[in-house]
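pasting for ref. prot 1 ->
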Amino acid sequence: MTTTDQAGTRAADAQAPPRSRWAAVTAVALGTFLLVTAEQLPIGLLTAVGSALHVSEGTAGLMVTVPSLVAAVAAPLVPMLVGGMDRRLLLLGLMALMTLANIASALAPSFAVLVVSRVLVGVAIGGFWAVASGLAVRLVAPAHVARATAIIFGGVGAANVFGVPLGTLLGEFSGWRVAFATLSVLALAALLGLLAVLPPLAASQPVRPRLLAEQFRNPGVRVGILATFLIITGHFSAYTFVSPALQRLSGIDERLVGPLLFAFGLAGMIGNFAAGAALARDARRTVLVIALTLAAAMPLYLLLGRGPVGGAVLLIAWGLAFGGVSVGLQTWMIKSAPQAVEAASALWVAVFNLSIGLGALTGGVIVDSLALQAILWLGGACALAAALAVWSARGHEGLR
């Protein structure tokens, strides 16, 4: 182990709490659940919002694009701007911002006001996720970090499985404004929960531009950032168009797409916790298996997914593997930069959100100019390239 690794380990040990705070971990998980729900909720409300505020569905899509891009910028920027501020107060402030932003969305008299409220949502998402993603090392004993990280990121899977579908259903029956208002009430409940159980979290090392730049000299961080960019870009280039892929390539009835995507989300939650358990034993091998599974699952659609059964099985395998991506790559970043977890996490969250937008954009261009099959090849190729990058890091001691 190098001197830098030893110093990082000592820094991480110094931050380790005297006892594990699982109630705080659960409250942070609830926060991530609501943040991801807020980010993706408009996907199911585009038509209703567009009709009510007199804009096209394409324009209404800005409700999804804007917070993603803002979150990518806010992830490194918010920790830099707040300096040494107690992270407990920061998380409380960001959840309060989320509460107010969704009230503004519910009451928006025009689409312009609604977009501004979505900018605030993006700030809350980027800032909260950047801090929360590396918070496990501050809340639980070192032996439980992987499991606590899996619980925090379980909120992401739960949002995809329950949050967005239930919010969309509420919007269909009670109106889109009620859906946003309900999300605001839940965000307030999460704020009160964080206030009750989150301990003081003094900033161990304020995030500065120089500290962010220094992370790129860390080979483990570089590989983690590259793997994140490749896997997330490849996944969203293909997954954005999974509905037409299921219907055209696998011959699955349109009425079954929703239940299959629900199954994808459930498989993702299982994959999240399975990866959390495996990461505690060997982080590099776990991320490598995830990347290789994704590299196989997407292109195999063209060989084994030509029927409903094959398509459904491959979709669930895809969901199982992708469910471990967030917790796997975040754990990679924690282990690669134990002396600068928040800075490395901020970079990771920024790349993650940028890659979502880039993947969806790239997939759209490919589908329009080439063919639907091409995005599955791209997704598989990106995951394979990520696997090669992960394999190249086999000598990094901290990732064992």
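and prot 2 ->
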Amino acid sequence: MAPAPDARVKITEAYARMVARDAYFWAWPMVNIYNRRLAFARCPEPMLANGVLPTAPLNRLSMLHDYIAPEQRFVACPNQDVVYGGSIAAMDLSPVVVQVPDFGDRFWVYQVVDLRTDSFAQIGKMHGTTPGFYLLVGPQWQGEVPRGITQVFRSSTNTAFVVPRVFQDDTPQDRKAIQSAIAGIDLYPLAEYDGEMKLRDWAKLPKSPPAAAGSEAGESRWVFPEKFLQQLPEVMADAPPLPGEEARYAQILAVIEAALHDPVLEAAMVDEATKCEEELVKPLLQFRNWGIPMGNHWSSLDNTAAFGTDYFSRTAAARSNILVNAPRETKYIYQDLDAQGRRLNGAHRYTVTFAKGQTPPASGFWSLTLYDADHFFVPNELHRFSLGTKNKDLKTDGDGALTICVQAEAPPQAQRSNWLPAPKGDFSLYLRAYWPQTSVVDGSWVPPPVDRRD
């Protein structure tokens, strides 16, 4: 039996289009991360791109020192509950050392995902991680592990995304207190490891123009149909087939090889990739189009950062809110609709009421964030984009319930602390439970409905 399709065989345009459509949808998250790696590779030093985005050369890390600014467009659905960091590890160049300082009682987690956006390292408070040094290595690395490395995590791909998240209260006091906690967060090539914790004042990072081009209202574009055929073989070389994917890889590579020698087939495949972007990928920005229904029109996923061969969920998450944590680390719950199934829109007033003792069950923290139709923050007079554990002035009702007002116009003064400002147009709501408790993980806890009040 032939080990793979024969690339010399003449194929039809319709067949090439079929393969292109399937391959484009399947590979969309991997090509997305691949192009982010190319952008980071152009960065000369750790910095804040355009003053807002933590960006660093490959195998380096950059940290914010406060909440992420609403202007950033690098990643959709950011939160303003944590101080973020960002790094792309290129383990084909070198293994990398990840520093974990002592965070004390403060909640923290490092997201570490491969080219597929699947998690391969468990580093965080919920994992019982101790302060120290951790090593990320690629699939083929066989070197010696230096003394003092607490644990080694091996990736199935040579490209990884590392995103530290450290919880911060929305107070001036905690903004000051967190600086000493985040000073020990870092990542660097193994050759620079000396067993000594390196410290940095992340507030002193230089600022630069954006590392990636793009001026669209939504997320910066990272997947380009016109570059798809040229980029995909390199992407697939970095991400070897999972068990059972060998035939898929052979088919895709054979068709790409044929297309690169036939301008008609190549044009047809690029055209089909463009159609796939518009017809299949673009609708996945809307949460109401995918996910596991949880009740009250909320939806979620149970396999975030552990997608494996669940290609639909992986691409849906990548298009709408890429770089999600693993289920044990964070439970994400999404909403586009009110209790009657109508699209959320700032022309109306809404309330979300958590009964006494029924806020999202989390051992870390919880938050309710509002995003515009493109899944970014909406500028407002309070500079407020979420409410939850970080807010110390939330007021409960007489029965102990917590009611959050979601509307464009300011509510009466007595309700201002519980006001989540909305835009004039469509918007989405997004619940996070960091270090989720069992009831939210197994679905026995269901978020309350979003009730329209006019």
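The chain has three domains: 13-35+221-285, 43-208, 287-452.
DSSP finds seven helices and 22 strands in the chain.
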